[in-house]
């Protein structure tokens, strides 16, 4: 059975003092959890401090982005070599905000995924449609195209190492929520697309998450589906009590699925 994972994407938020306080609380909360993985994605400037705090814990440290080149004259960018030195083991790739505000293309994202895998990072590959695409009835077509382009030319072995996060853009930071049924439909299509690129065995190993205005009072609507393997959490991951409730929810659902496979 695929292990559930809850990933907190902090985006451009929190002071260093608040970040440390949150991490100390999470470290204590998560140490008793074995049925669910937890990862946090702080801003770059906090990575080294938080890596040292979380050393020896069962919380993964994830970067929010990464350039695909190993070094060079790329002012303002962070290379995979630099993240390796910080003992980061995951990286978000293709987030809708990177696509929208920084104009990252599917080709850029494909290069980043390949670079992340080369340096033994787990890429958290984000896909999702905007409201216009959703209302036109082409959400599945749109997301499938993103999957095919982002995972182009990857081997079956590499495909197994990827985490996919389905984030309908219209539900990110808007308070709107994609129903569990609708999210599960897209997730199943993603898994089927990965199967087309590889094998059924590979597709069944890939973890696929939901993201988009996740809160503790609505996530049960999504995590109950066996094909949805966790969540990429935004604003709710900045509040300890709220994020802890989401982790507990995933932990209990995983235990339930194990007892009733």
What's the overall geometry?
Answer: globular
- Biggest sheet: strands, sense, closure? 8 strands, parallel, barrel
Measured by DSSP, the beta-strand proportion falls in 15-25%
The CATH top-level class label = Alpha Beta
- Arithmetic mean of pLDDT: 94
Write the layout of secondary structure elements.
Elements: E1 4-9, H1 16-30, E2 36-41, H2 47-53, E3 59-63, H3 80-85, E4 90-93, H4 96-101, H5 106-118, E5 122-127, H6 131-135, H7 139-150, H8 156-159, E6 163-166, H9 180-197, H10 200-205, E7 207-211, H11 220-223, E8 230-233, H12 240-259
Parallel strand pairs: 1-2, 1-8, 2-3, 3-4, 4-5, 5-6, 6-7, 7-8
Helix pairs in contact: 7-9
Write a structural description:
- The structure is a single chain.
- The protein is of the alpha/beta class.
- Helix content is 44%, strand content 15%.
- It has an eight-stranded parallel barrel with strand order 1-2-3-4-5-6-7-8, surrounded by six helices.
- α7 (139-150) packs parallel to α9.
- The model has no long low-confidence stretch (mean pLDDT 94).
């Amino acid at each position: 059975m695929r292990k559930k994972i809850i990933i907190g994407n902090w985006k451009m938020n929190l002071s260093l003092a608040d970040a440390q306080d949150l991490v100390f609380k999470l470290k204590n909360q998560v140490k008793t959890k074995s049925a669910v993985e937890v990862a946090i994605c702080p801003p770059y400037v906090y990575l080294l401090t938080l890596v040292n705090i979380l050393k020896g814990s069962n919380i993964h440290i994830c970067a929010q982005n990464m350039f695909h080149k190993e070094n060079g004259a790329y002012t303002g960018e962070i290379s995979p070599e630099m993240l390796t030195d910080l003992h980061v083991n995951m990286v978000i790739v293709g987030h809708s905000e990177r696509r929208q505000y920084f104009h990252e293309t599917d080709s850029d994202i494909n290069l980043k995924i390949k670079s992340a895998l080369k340096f033994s990072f787990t890429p958290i590959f984000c896909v999702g449609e905007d409201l216009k695409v959703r209302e036109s009835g082409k959400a599945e077509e749109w997301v499938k195209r993103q999957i095919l382009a982002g995972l182009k030319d990857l081997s079956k072995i590499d495909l197994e190492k990827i985490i996919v996060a389905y984030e309908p853009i219209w539900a990110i930071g808007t308070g709107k929520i994609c129903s569990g049924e609708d999210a599960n439909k897209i997730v199943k299509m993603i898994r089927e697309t990965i199967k087309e690129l590889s094998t059924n065995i590979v597709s069944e190993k890939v973890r696929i998450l939901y993201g988009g205005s996740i809160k503790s009072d609505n996530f049960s609507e999504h995590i109950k589906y066996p094909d949805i393997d966790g969540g990429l959490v935004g604003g709710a991951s900045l509040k300890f009590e709220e994020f802890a409730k989401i982790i507990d929810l995933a932990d209990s659902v995983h235990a339930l699925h194990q007892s009733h496979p």
